[in-house]
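Why show two proteins at once? Because comparison is the fastest way to build intuition. When a single record is shown, students tend to memorize it. When two are placed side by side, the eye starts asking what differs. So, the first record is below.
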Amino acid sequence: MQKGQIRVQTENIFPIIKKFLYSDHEIFLRELISNAVDASQKLKKLASLGETKANIDNLRIDVELDTKEKTITLTDRGVGMSKEEVDKYLNQVAFSSAEEFLEKYKDANIIGHFGLGFYSAFMVSEKVEVLSQSHRDEEATVFWSCDGNPEFELYEVEKRERGTKIILHINEESKEFLDAQRVKSIVEKFCKFLPIPIYFKDVAEEKKKDEEEKSINNTNPIWIKKPNELTKEDYEKFYRELYPFGETPLFWIHLNVDYPFNLTGILYFPKIKQSYEIQKDKIQLYSNQVFVTDEVKDIVPEFLMLLHGVIDSPDIPLNVSRSYLQGDPNVKKINNHITKKVADKLEEIFRNERTEFEQKWESLGLFVKYGMMTDEKFLEKANKFLVMEDAVNKNSISVTKEDGTAEEKLTAKFYTVEEYKNTTEALQKNKEGKHVIIYTTDPVQQDAYIQAAKAKNFVVVKMETLVDAAFINNMEMKWENVHFVRVDADIVDNLIDKQESNDSVLSKAEAEELKKLFEFPVNDLHVTVEVKGLSADTAPVVATRPEFMRRMKDMGAVGGGMAAFYATMPDEVTLTINGNHTIYQALLKEADIEKKEKQVRNLADLALLSQGLLKGAELTNFINRSVELMK
């Protein structure tokens, strides 16, 4: 049996580094600047312990582009390296000085871990040069150079100021990184919130000497502060920094956890006025203030991908390129913690500021409903604060005007599920003992149906967003003894339970004649006709669509699966003729058969129009026929 150490052939590893170390070559700037930050943070740590005499008042990082010389130079004023340290850390691939520093100083705020970040320089450079002066004055300044082959040069040079300067001689394939705007945008993207000031200079467009320098990063983002140190204005200002063109958010949640994992950040609930405004990938993931990605689907629950903001955790397990999450129990714990924090915050606002909560429901409802469908733990809490808006009734509240007088103001009326059940207990339970929630998806178009329901003292609530069709189906399975019925799913008498006896003043022969008159084909519709005795003030004809089929078609219009199959099927419509309406006494006596048929067709078209089912040529024919009958 043989034992030993695996050997790395450096002749082979450089081509691999150049091509495959990072999938996106722009990351070299993130890695090198992160190293410069680490060098600065190490010096601050040593100074705090009295282990260095170095002055730490002027720490900064400079990124300088020289298109003429085809170089990018990064300079820090950090801890620096001795000749021995350069040999140790630069000449050994994957040996991390950050990791070694953390072993000695456990609580240091250090970014690097893998010892490969420096080598990202070779992805874009034909040669890399390093000048470094240790914080220990007795050490010499050293120069290191390598052109991407295993050979390197390392020797002492004339003394320079403390810190490290890295000069990248950009290769021909990477000349995109000699564009000033490109380089600056990369630095701003990855390093916008790093804790050491970063300055960018384009040598070709060097600023006038009397112009004040300005760092391109915010070294003290509010998520690293304690919530009790911040004001409402601080949170709103930071939101504008993240999203310059975004509206003021509804509210926010400040994450600040140090056990059993480290997690900080701020999640904002944005205003969403319409369902189609939903945008994902608006949460930015950071690790020790270094931007990693805005694809956070494994860390943030799916329904909260609609939120905006920042999450920062050094405990999130990333691969070498930091581009992908590695499988780890911490990811699931963080995911669960974020869900709990959001649910607790929503419940707190609902409990303490219900009026404000309801005013924001148009935007909040999307998050809440999406979460209730996809996350069982969130569902359990959200059952307490999900609210449904009354489509008809309003609340009357007293408000104080500027002159000190009071006036009554009407505001939307909302119910929790339990409140709705209690309010409708006497009238809206079906034969199976289920609470029937009557809803509308379009209060304007379905107004006639809503008014008919109101006349019966039924309570109709709004369910008019893109997620509501799926939400209703989900909640019928998850809530006990609850059934949803759209207000136009049947005649009002049948919304709670099917009423078999509806006496009409028409004779059996008259009812049959009417039924035959209404049995005519309508393009793209499967029509069923019935005659019933409804109240005299109900419309002459009521068009309804079966709840199940209509739901399936609505879902099919926005999704796939079986619902998409239903979307291709003709609409099923029931035309209920109100035999008790006085119009039929005259219509049945009409001697002009052609006129009678046109009148019948118009009555049917009016009913179909109320369901939005009269379109194209059918709508044109209705208009022309109406004009003709008026003559």
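Second record. Ask yourself what differs from the first in the token line.
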Amino acid sequence: MGQTNNNISSYGAKDIQVLEGLEAVRRRPGMYVGGTDIKALHHLVYEIVDNSIDEALAGVCDRIIVTIHEDSSVTVEDNGRGIPVDLHPEKKVSALELVMTTLHAGGKFGSGGYKVSGGLHGVGSSAVNALSEWCRVEVKRDGHIYMQEYRRGIAQAPVSVIGECDPQLTGTTNSFKFDKQIFTEDIDFRFETLVTRFREMAFVTRKVKIQLNDERAGKQITFYFDGGIISFVRYINRSRENLHPVFFVEKEIDGISVEAALQYTDSYTESVYSFANTINTIDGGTHMTGLRSAITRVVNDYARRNTLIKENDPNFSGDDTREGLTAIISVKVTDPQFESQTKVKLMNPEVQTAVQQVVAEAYATFLEENPNAGKAIIQKCLTSARARDAARKARDLVIRKSALESMTLPGKLADCSSRNPEQSELYIVEGDSAGGSAKQGRDRQFQAILPLRGKILNTERARLDKILSSDEIKALISALGVGIGDNFDLSHLRYHRVIIMTDADVDGSHIRTLLLTFFFRYMQQVIDGGHLYIAQPPLYLISHKNQKRYAYTETDREEIIKEMGIDPGKVNLQRYKGLGEMNPEQLWETTMNPENRTLLKVSVEDAAQADRTFDMLMGQAVPPRTRFIQTHAHAVQNLDV
């Protein structure tokens, strides 16, 4: 112990670093916006829009315009009160500069500025400013237009007056360009991602107009909903058969405002979304727990009181009472506690009690007053309980069978020689011809191939017991090694990269959507763990004399022909309709070789989008399906991207 080691670095007061101003945000973006990936990039926009929504919640803003410019800079404009610009009494600097350049400064802490807000830590605007190459804020207030500009979080000059305006006009316009020094990946804003978020915001903030303009593609969309979350439930169920009118309750209890809307449909899945101060809490939290327990309790009480279930039958489980349920729970809390800065889970314990009380009381009354709805819901729960029992038996059978077969892998699986899951990959391919090319072209050391014949079972219209009887699904579950349902265990995943490789045509797209939906519904942890990918096979082989290049998109094709400097008429173009058309060497070179290939990592958001699309394509309701297929026929290969 007495040995001295001259290599030990010193650790004294001089080694304690104090990160000045916004340097902390630039050094640790993960703590403030969740990282530097595409999700974090969109989070920048949400932080600024959340500030405008807070103004709307305070009743002083009814219009928000978000514009993505051609250079991918973003402008968010609202007609709220405008960020204050007068000097802060203690800091002796303009309040605007303070909000934009100081962490934990904002109007959300005291009790004066906002009764309810999504802003929590006061790091929103300043974090966005810190992670932007440049930022510019204009404020309309008291008949003047004030402005300040920043570079990487540093104010370039004091706040100045740049013009006059009608004293009745107020609002804030915040423009920023994300910093490529921080967001180093080749990423950009996705119109669809923003559309989904703003549609949700408009649903849960009634009578606020949210407009999104995308100057890169000349697109524009505006959201405005009078009906709030009732409209939201109707929107989600637009292609499903509903069992009763939408139930809605709105009540404030102990300073917590609770809004809930729900409706049962003929679907087999649960679509429940939770919001706290208009922020989509994707990991749920205390408000979601309150909603679920209220529904289960009320449904069981109603069934018992009206003798709709036999005396000896057990109560419905939570899963039984949520099959086919579409519900939105939206709470507004004065002092929200979230699990992290990215606000994905609400933690306030008092919210659970408030939601339970409000929903249970109103929902019990609703069922008593609407006996037809009550009967239909109980019938749905009974069917679900029976099917769940059948599924359990089917699952036990599958497990017993695989135990008897001593966990033998499916015959069609061409396994890899590596036994290290971290190095191993599984390619799920459609059909035998593609499977053949993939088996010959792969690197046997770490790449396994599982060919699936035809379209796997439509998991939207089938329950787990039926799904488990499908040979294709059984082969997939068996190859992955993680089990399914209650027996699911991600630590047994045999391949840390599971890659869906389908043809670039309508059928291939359909199968990809089916697989994504299956993973989303029954193996979401595989997606959460970052293990699910989509392969990107090329669309064209472009050859001229001794030059050969692969194009993965139409734009790629045009650019490559231009780069090769040849007359488009003289180019030899081969379009690959399917993977089976490529010889094994070509498939390896373009789609399977880690040196050259492009893989798209699937996020839960992508899978949820596929799930929604799938619901529309495969659900019972025919008119929206027909309309969707007609209007999207030209883009059908991009259903799940």
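One difference worth noting in the second protein: The chain is about 35% helix and 20% strand.
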